[in-house]
Design goal:
The complex is a heterodimer of chains A (175) and B (189). Chain A is 42% helix and 18% strand. Chain A has a 6-stranded parallel beta sheet with strand order 2-1-3-4-6-5, sandwiched between helices. Chain A is globular, with a radius of gyration of 15 Å. The mean pLDDT of chain A is 96. In chain B, strands 2-1-3-4-8-7 form a 6-stranded parallel beta sheet, sandwiched between helices. In chain B, helix 7 links the parallel strand 7 and strand 8. The chains are: A alpha/beta (175), B alpha/beta (189).
Amino acid sequence: MAPFSFAEGDWRAGIFAQFEACGVQQMAYVPDAGHASLIRACHAAGEIDCTVLTTEEEGVALLAGAELGGMRGVMLMQSSGVGNCVNMFSLLASCRFPFVTLVTMRGEWAEFNPWQVPMGQATEDTFRRSGFIVYRADTGEDAAAMTGSALRLAYDSNCAVAVLLSQRLIGAKTF
Amino acid sequence: MIERREAIAELLKDRPDELLVVTGLGSPTYDVAAAGDVDRNFYLWGAMGGAASMGLGLAQARPDSRVMVITGDGEMLMGMGSLATIGAKQPANLAILVIDNEAFGETGGQASHTGLTTNLAAVALACGFRKVMTARKPDELAEVRQLLLEEKGPVLAVLKTRAGDLPRVLPERDGHAIRLRFKAALAQS
C-alpha cells in the first residue's frame, strides 16, 4: 500500500489520530466522498484491517464479530445508510456490544439532491431510538475530539455511539 | 435426504477446541445447541442476515482460530451481499454452512428462493469463495466436514435437508449473557 498523508488542513487527520490512539484494528465502510481521505489513510495504515461493505448493516454485524474476538472497530458511512441498519442495531442493544460509527451527513445543509433529505433528517432520531449516544460535529476539532470520546465510551462503557459529521462541516456536494 | 439435526451433530462431533461457531437465527441455533451447548458457540436469535458478516469480523479478529457460520437458507439470502464482502476479503479461516430446507421454517414453511431458482453455492463461488459444495446425501457429510474444518477459506457448503419441524432445543437467549460467555471462553485460551 502506498504511503498516504493528509492534505494540509484536512481535519480528518485528527480523526485518524484518534483511531490510532484508541487502538482501532478494524474499519468497515460504505464509501462516501466525505470520508475519502480517511478511508485512504486507514488502508495505508498496515495495522487497520479495512473491509468494504455492500450495505451498511453488514458493518454492524462485522464489528460485533470483531469485538467478540477482542478487536476494536469503527464504521464509516453516509446518513443515507443509517436506515439500512435499523434491525441490525438490535444486535448491539441485545448483546451490549460496543460500537462506533462516523456518519457524513447529507440532506441537512444546502442539499442539492432532494432524495437525500428524508433519511438525512431522520438520521439523528433513528440513532437515538435505536439506543445510540449521538454526537454532532460542526468543526474539525470537534470531529476529532468526539471520535476519541466515542471510542472510549464504546469500548470502556459498552455503548453504541454515532458521530454525525455535519454537512456544513463537510461541505455540500456540488453537481 | 440429509436429516439436519443428525448432520449437524455429525459435523460438530469431537469438534476442535479452537473452533468458533456463529449460528443464524431459528433452526440452525437449535440444531447447534442440540449438538452441544459449547461456550464457543455464539447464538443469534435475531439480526437476520448478519451471521456471515459476524463470522467475518470474528475470523479477522481471530486469525488463528477456525470460524464456522452455521445458518439457514433464508438468513443467508437476506445477507447475500455479505458473500461478496467475504469474497473480497478472502479470510482463510472462515467457513459457512447453509442448512438449506428451501423454506422459511420459522414462519410456516413458505418456499424460499433456493427451492425456486437461487443456488447459494454458485453465488458464493461467483463472489470469490475458494471452494464450495452442495451435499444432498448423508454419505457426503465426511467431505463437508473436511471442507468446513480443514480447507483454506473462504469456503461454503450447502446441505440440502428435509423441510419440517423438529423439537426445539433452546439455548440461552439473553444476548449479553451469550456474548460474555463466549468472550470468557476465548480469554481462557
